[in-house]
From TrEMBL:
The protein, known as: Epoxide hydrolase
Lineage, broadest ranks: Bacteria, Bacillati, Actinomycetota, Actinomycetes, Geodermatophilales
Source organism superkingdom: Bacteria
Catalytic activity, EC: 3.3.2.9
Family: Belongs to the peptidase S33 family.
Keywords, sorted A to Z: Aromatic hydrocarbons catabolism, Hydrolase
Length: 382
């Protein structure tokens, strides 16, 4: 498998075009006083678009992202982009970290240093890792998307090929959001290679599959209450997933033509899982949000990344059981219940946190790193 070094280099003409489109944004009318009840309000989005157009420095972010070693390869006919940072420690173990939507492989930038070189980050002697962080096909620089049919299992198969070709015979699989279903699928695909699975933002840990007989059987009253709360929340917030799961190509025209529309679409989801805290102000830093939106814009992947919802289907649906030892870190707004997670995973560690959120690698990188370290130490004692 041919692996080539990669550096992001967005042409200035594309930057100029983005700024022109942002300045020419056509704003919708809205009902007075609606706030966030009906979607993203212009009172929030206008200043954010203005910041993107006037204060956001893409070149600075481009240089920051390029500071991490990146590569391109081809697997199963698809270009795959990945970040690969090796630890200076001789006892380091490999880990593959998978993002979700609307995230990118660069969400892990704040955890890579502490994971690869804990000694230099105030954690002398803590477990060290060689970090591989690929972009899911159709996301970011794993584009253009050449074929459909990139199911969760097919992505997992590609990841197994990637790790094999990097020379890693056994490793840890970590992931959040869609990464939380890709990582277990990887463990099922190559169970002898995956030593452990570490998950956050678990898709199949908060709701139940209502199509199964007696879906609430075995759950406590507290678990059932949490499921009902999740289902009520999902009924109000799931429009984006339903559209992406049924008509992603139709949606793509709007998101591909309007950067303000793309930003609103991403920000609405960031707000929905951020415990009603405005994205870009506390839960998700403004610069990180705009960097992610810029990557989606420059790579023209708003539509192809949405296709993963269509490929995966019901986010709360049943998935095959994963026997590999699994740790779950539950952050605010994840809604993960251990009893539900244990239907799908061999849960050996379950930790709830009161800080962070659905995008833990960005919102609480220190907690995610420490949970990963402790899980690996626990694995060594098993």
């Amino acid at each position: 498998m041919k692996i080539e070094p990669f550096q992001i280099a967005i042409p200035q003409s594309e930057l100029d075009d983005l700024l022109r489109r942002l300045r020419a944004t056509r704003w919708p009318d809205e009902v007075e006083g609606a706030g966030w009840a009906d979607g993203v309000p212009t009172a929030y989005l206008r200043p954010l678009v203005d910041h993107w157009a006037t204060a956001f420095d893409w070149r600075a972010h481009e240089a920051r992202l390029n500071a991490q070693p990146q590569f391109l390869t081809e697997i199963d006919g698809q270009q795959i982009h990945f970040v690969h940072v090796r630890s200076p420690r001789a006892d380091a173990q490999p880990i593959i970290m998978t993002h979700g939507w609307p995230s990118t492989a660069f969400d892990f930038h704040a955890v890579i240093g502490p994971l690869t070189d804990p000694d230099a980050h105030g954690a002398v002697g803590a477990p060290a890792f060689h970090v591989v962080a690929p972009s899911i096909p159709g996301f970011g620089f794993s584009s253009p998307m050449r074929t459909d049919g990139w199911s969760i299992d097919r992505v997992a198969s590609a990841w197994s090929v990637l790790m094999e070709n990097l020379g890693y015979a056994d490793f840890i699989a970590q992931g959040g959001d869609f990464g939380s279903v890709i990582s277990p699928a990887l463990a099922r695909a190559v169970p002898d290679a995956v030593r452990g699975v570490h998950l956050n933002a678990l898709l199949n840990g908060a709701g139940v599959d209502r199509s199964r007989p007696d879906p609430l059987a075995g759950l406590s009253a507290a678990d059932i209450g949490a499921v009902e709360e999740t289902e009520a929340w999902w009924a109000q917030r799931s429009a984006y997933a339903r559209l992406q799961g049924t008509r992603p190509d139709t949606l793509a025209y709007a998101l591909t033509d309007s950067p303000a529309g793309l930003l609103a679409w991403i920000a609405d989801l960031e707000w929905a899982v951020g415990d009603d805290v405005l994205p870009g102000e506390v839960e998700v830093e403004k610069e990180e949000l705009l960097a992610a939106a810029s990557i989606y814009w420059f790579t023209n992947t708003a539509g192809t990344s949405a296709r993963i919802y269509k490929e995966h289907g019901d986010l709360f649906g049943d998935t095959p059981y994963t026997a590999t030892p699994t740790a779950i870190a539950s952050f605010p707004r994840d809604g993960t219940r251990r009893a539900i997670a244990e239907r799908h995973h061999n849960v050996v560690r379950f930790t709830e946190y009161d800080r962070g959120g659905h995008f833990a690698a960005v919102q609480a990188p220190d907690l995610l790193v420490e949970d990963l370290r402790q899980f690996v130490l626990d694995l060594g004692e098993r």
